Amino acid sequence: MTPLYPPGPVQVATGVNGINSATWNPTIHLTLPANAPAGTYSSTITHSVS
Q1: Nearest by Cα to 46 from 13, 15, 16, 8
Q2: Which of 13, 36, 38, 45 could form a disulfide with 32 if both were Cys (CB 3.0 to 4.6 A apart)?
Q3: What 3 state SS string does the chain have?
Q4: Alpha-carbon distance 8 to 12, whole Å?
């Protein structure tokens, strides 16, 4: 597993011609410290294609 912090590209393509497609099916892992208070936590994951 490779962390994406700081953010960076997952995959890069160069010299691409014509009609192309790509898929990505990430798995998110979260580890909380044993002493973390019980409760509801939230976060935002931003995925962009450029």
Answers
A1: 8
A2: 36
A3: CCCCCCCCCCCCCCCCCCCCCCCCCCCCCCCCCCCCCCCCCCCCCCCCCC
A4: 10
CA atoms within 13 A on the CB side of 31: 2
Cα Rg for the chain, rounded, in angstroms? 16
Which one-letter amino acid corresponds to residue 14? T
Say yes or no to pLDDT of 3 above 80: no
For residue range 17-32, what is the model confidence (pLDDT) as tens digits?
998 887 878 788 888 8
